[in-house]
Here is the input.
Amino acid sequence: LKNLILIVRRFLEKSWNIGKNEPRKVIHCLKVGIALSVVSLFYYMRPLYNGVGGTAMWAVMTVVVVFEYTVGATLYKCLNRATGTFCAGFLAIGIHWIANQSGKRFEPIIMGVSIFILASAATFTRFIPAVKARFDYGTMIFILTFTLVSISGYRIENLLNMAHERVSTIIIGASLCVITSILIFPIWAGEELHKLVISNLEKLAESLDCCVAEFFSDSEDTTTNTKKMLAFKCVLNSKASEETMANFARWEPAHGLFNFQHPWGKYLKISASMRSCACCIEALTSCINQKDQASELLKNQLTNSCQQVSSSTSEILKELALNMKTMRKSSRMDMLIQVKSNAIQELETLMEQLSGLLIIQPKNDQEKPVTRTSSTNVIPLVEIIPTATFASLVIEIAMRIEGVV
Amino acid sequence: LKNLILIVRRFLEKSWNIGKNEPRKVIHCLKVGIALSVVSLFYYMRPLYNGVGGTAMWAVMTVVVVFEYTVGATLYKCLNRATGTFCAGFLAIGIHWIANQSGKRFEPIIMGVSIFILASAATFTRFIPAVKARFDYGTMIFILTFTLVSISGYRIENLLNMAHERVSTIIIGASLCVITSILIFPIWAGEELHKLVISNLEKLAESLDCCVAEFFSDSEDTTTNTKKMLAFKCVLNSKASEETMANFARWEPAHGLFNFQHPWGKYLKISASMRSCACCIEALTSCINQKDQASELLKNQLTNSCQQVSSSTSEILKELALNMKTMRKSSRMDMLIQVKSNAIQELETLMEQLSGLLIIQPKNDQEKPVTRTSSTNVIPLVEIIPTATFASLVIEIAMRIEGVV
Here is the structure.
């Protein structure tokens, strides 16, 4: 029993933390509650609701199934559900009419075969990527409605009436969902995506800074910075959620800073290049683990220009994040890119100068394993260069975005 | 019109290709068709079906909604749907009884408030990660059933009967789904995950081989190998699908080589280490782009031992894939690890020897930018060492798996 109480308590604590950290999730829950209660009230008020009658169930079902966290997802499901139901209803009535004409004997056969063929075909289209991304839910509803209508058509007879009722209840439920989700504290998928990409840019800049600082610092207290350093892991793992959000964002109407035809695909491109940057940073962290082997002398030589390259790169990332926040292309960007390429060149010339240093040095103290140190010390540079090129790639794409926005 | 025909034709060609490449998807579609037709037949046969009557609709709905590509997903949805309906039905009847006791006036208020509270609370639990992974669908069904039962209970009165009917039709639909998906060409989520991880291991080994071969080859025909070289990208992007598959695999009964409590979590761990390996390979590819700058001499010196390290590493990956295929721990693995660590040591000593070479060499031909070449040339080594350590990490985890299996 004590264990059970402990488990329940931990569960409650966890939920409380989720609620405290993300109050919008709590608001979403309340929104679902409101929408459902309103639908129920609809059902309680007999006179208002006489036209739709017993199929009011469909309105409730629509609210429960369709109501999603973001506006885009809700709209996607609503539109899919409405069009799926509509198409399937029409098709089912048509086939039912044909089956009726061909006599009692063939009717069940025709219906069965048509259900088999259409269900298989519709299920197959769900595997096609383009359809899956946009109409997955719609095809499922299509199958459902088609089967229901053709089966109940065999029994009830007043088919058109039933189809009309079903479509109208679904529209009532769907519009209620859309209204609640847009009017009460809306959560836009596009805005979420926008914020996520910006925060990822900032995280990337921060962890790049931390990594380089960590590598060149002499102190041993690695614990304080590790959390910031590992911020790039979020960037690596956010692919799936970004894709779904971009998908939903396409369904959203114009809101806030975003127009209807906002180039959501570009966000995916930016985050793809961010992921390759994050890969490089991951490789950098493995160098940090070996930093004890690096020689102090060479490190000191390279500290300044290395830090310049990384700081100019992270400056660009931060500026990019700022640009995206304000949705404006700043003139500072070109300057920063200039600064970055200067820093890279400086680093390269410094490395060439150091080649001379390396050759002379071993004669003084032969014990130092020179190649080892040079190799472990050279990594960050070499790693920073691809990072910088990736960053410039990111900037290129970002330029285009700002041109479009 | 011509455009339309072209679009339709391209669409059909694409679907034909999908069908040809993955015949199992076509089989899945036919399975859905069969299950739906059987349910419809159930409904046509009046005498057999008298007990369940007009709510047979629920059976159809269950089949459409619950039938998924893999057995695990189908089972997950079936069990969630059944338990969700059952719990919600009981709770709704209980609350309905309380509301009934408190008189006509308070009844709608109690019902409305209870719907609001329960819907909000259930929606909130869907945000908790542990619940979301396992019971997401169940909580949705819980909300749906609870609302439907409490609303219709206000009207119909014979509540218990309705609840009983609904649960039994759902069980009929669900068991039909489970039977079809298990008996006719079953597609197990666990098996898919197993195959995916194995093929990812092989791809990783292949692209590691190709990268190193590419770096040390003199020829310019990079086009033939690029496809193989970029195979690791699949490894980077497969996180989301692996996680869902591991989730569904937990619901599956014992089948083929897998027991009920198969350690699916370990697969996720393996693929996490594979992803960090893939990151290193990504960094390697950027070195390949700069390979023109590397000096021939140093390259020739290092070719052999570099290739040894990489080939022993990829050998280990392949052996691991083979071990996982046969589900047996081979004795070769220990030997291979020994070979790999020998190769790494050899490479390290060679690098120390080369430090001498580097120092003497510049005196002969000063023009060569020594540090540059050493730096660009050293990368693959330094990159291979983390790759190798990652690989040994993978092996460690894999050992544990084979111990458990």
The longest helix of chain B spans residues 370-404. The mean pLDDT of chain B is 72.
